[in-house]
Amino acid sequence: MSRFSPRSRRSVLVVEDEEIIRTSLQEFLLGEGYEVQVAASATEATQHVKQTDFSVAICDVQLPDGDGVKLLRRMHQYNPNLFVLIITAYATVENSVEAFKAGAFDYLTKPVRFEDLCNKLDRLFEFRDMHLENLALRRELQRIDGFEQIVGSSRALTELQATIRKVAVTNSNVLLVGETGTGKELYARAIHAGGPSGDERFLAASCGTRPIELLEAQLFGAVRGGTNEQPGIFRHAGSGTVFLDEIAELPMGTQSELVRAIEYHETMPVGGSETVPVQPRIIVSTTRDLLREVAEGRFQEDLFYRLDGVKIRIPPLRERLDDIPELVEYFVARHSKSMGKRVTGASSETIRLLTSAEWKGNVRQLDNAIERAVMMSDGTHIEPQDLPPELLGIGPPLPDTDELRSALRHYERMHITRVLRQWPDKREAAKRLKLGLSSLYRKIEELDIDL
User: Fold this and answer.
1) Which of 44, 152, 176, 199 has the fewest CB neighbours in a 10 Å radius?
2) Contact between 207 and 253 (Cβ < 8 Å)
3) Verdict on whether the full-model pTM lies above 0.70
């Protein structure tokens, strides 16, 4: 009888080149109620993992086309939540340590004893269930304390969230530094929500607003006809938070008024003759190096030192690639709901392509890519063909030329670049391209491909 109900059945991939061991493991696990697929090589296992999200892989450490430890690392690229048991003929300290460093949960020695396998699988699934439950609880806690839209569990993000929680409770002014698209306003809102005035207003303004008079009226208010007709967001925020995006864009004259707001907690409305008291927390963001802006005379030094005291760097997406699967899940759910579609996730191949992309536009670019993919998807899972073409390395279009040689060279460069992005191992890439390894290196040099 199956050990699991249909709802809780769990999938296992067995990777073993010896047919008798592979078959006996498959038959035993099927009898124990697991869903089982088998592979006789690293290449075959890779194809299975690309197509199916397995719970567990049981993998021989010695395979005809590679070793199990390297395969383990490759499988984790496709499915970060895959747990792996390594099978080894000799359980030496060296190969066990190497396997654990690569992310193996445990190991089995040959000949495999079914009782030992059962015990380790029970312990593995117990740990796996607890691990996934902890991830869910962590997300729930983030929703409770104002971090509901900060998605991910990478080390970089965990450290950033810890910093934000410490800074939030102080009510200090904060400078957020990061590339375009990293979500600086999102983190500003989290700081506000976690602060002592989290129930008060959060008001945001872009410092690139033109004309200057309109920006200053928006920030500090305006007086016309002897009355204060427009309070401005500094006054309207009360004891809440004012978020100023792209502070480096603030005109020099307006910077002086901001210094007054920070230093003396008062501002002068446009057209007014008397200052008015203000008391909001101030959070600003920038994509520029403010110290360089000061050195080049575009930013006031006294304002810089008043803002630079509490500075938080927001990491770009390329420094937190481990968060991409969770971000994709979050964006798919959001966009599917808004579009009324039944897309529930992304295939392993899609996730692998997304984790190998450059992401110059960071999380905002990923969000836009998933929105487009959900729109284009015909099934329940996003597939590679649903992603923006330029993300896959198959765009932009061919050059505007009638010369066949130039067009072919351009296409050849794009195609090889795309394959290398998908298969960083050059031997594997050469195999996919049906080229010799030396020929691939020659093509990379001839076509000036940037690796």
Assistant:
1) 199
2) no
3) no
